[in-house]
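Z., the sequence and structure:
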Amino acid sequence: MACLDTNVILNYIHGNETVRKLVDAYAEAEAITTTSVTRFEILCAPDQAERQLGIEFLNQIKVYDFDRKSAEIAAHRYRKLKSAGTLIGDTDIMIASIAGANDETLITQDSDFERIKSGRIVIIKEKITKA
């Protein structure tokens, strides 16, 4: 299954054709999911219309919670990244750890995730802007 990061969902709801095609292709082949951290980030969006579109999208897919297993993976990754001097944002570590704990492939546009050494993270390298 494919777990979508916040930036992928936001570009999808804004109508970016590249992201829409990619997400739709994943949705045809397998279930798409996201995380409770992504839900939090979308609910924090300052724009009411963007929040509403995000909520409508989220209500159609499975949302994984940050649970004990996710927390353990996140803490391990945090310590590893910090000791290497390559720390990324806490929410990014949490999102990747939730996906990993649920055997999901994370789909993101955030190159910071390259610092997490995992074959289960797909980074969309193409520059994508809001529609």
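The first strand starts at residue 2 and ends at 4. The beta strands are 2-4, 32-35, 62-64, 105-108, 121-123.

Let me know what you think.
H.
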